[in-house]
Amino acid sequence: MQRFKQKKLILFTLGVFTTCTFTTNKVNASSFGAEIFCTMRDGGNDHESSWDAAYSYIKKQKGGLFKISPKNAAAQITETVIREKDKFSYCVEYLDSLHPNRQLIRDLEKEEKRKEKEAKEREERKKRLEKELEETNEKIGGELNEEFTDEFTDETLDRYSY
């Protein structure tokens, strides 16, 4: 019983320690990543070089089995800049370059939905026209059969009767 309590205590302590360690690294990494990005941009560097430096730092500091995606790193930088407005007030103007394609993505999604809607409408129109054509053919076919049988007798259809 005593050993079980000791193991439980050790696991609990280890869990608290690792949680604090990983959380602190993530917060510090994103904060310093934001500082790298904003300082470089404010110093006159272009977006690509500033972003590469900040992203590689955040990636390196994250550690672990899975690496952080560029989208998540950009979100962390944005969150840090917004959370610490006083410290990064000069950096707000550079945040739009971290998420450049949002408007393009929205436009592409709207275009895709519009195309799907048009395709559905075309398909429905095609089915409706086919149905109308089928009904018309049945109607005309029935009338022609009646005319043929009324007009021609067996004598007229005999090919050797001249």
DSSP strand tally = 0
What order do the SSEs take from the amino end to the carboxyl end, as H and E?
HHHHH
Mean of the pLDDT scores? 77
Radius of gyration: 37 Å
Please work out how many helical segments DSSP would assign.
Answer: 5
Derived structural class: mainly alpha
Domain count: the total is 2
Summarize the biggest pleated sheet. Answer: none
Q: First CA to last CA: what distance?
A: 119 Å
Helix content: over 70%
Q: How much of the residues is beta strand, in percent? A: under 5%
Low-confidence stretches: 20-26
Shape label:
elongated
Brief sketch in words of this structure:
The protein has two domains: 2-100, no CATH class; 104-157.
Index terms:
mainly alpha; 2 domains
Element layout with pairings:
Layout (H helix, E strand, L loop, with lengths): L1 H41 L4 H16 L7 H14 L18 H50 L2 H4 L5
Helix pairs in contact: 1-2, 1-3
Question: Can you offer a commentary on this structure?
Answer:
The protein is mainly alpha-helical and 162 residues long. The chain has two domains: 2-100, no CATH class; 104-157. The chain is built from five helices and no strands. The protein has helices at 2-42, 47-62, 70-83, 102-151, 154-157. The longest helix has 50 residues, at 102-151. The chain is elongated and about 110 Å long.
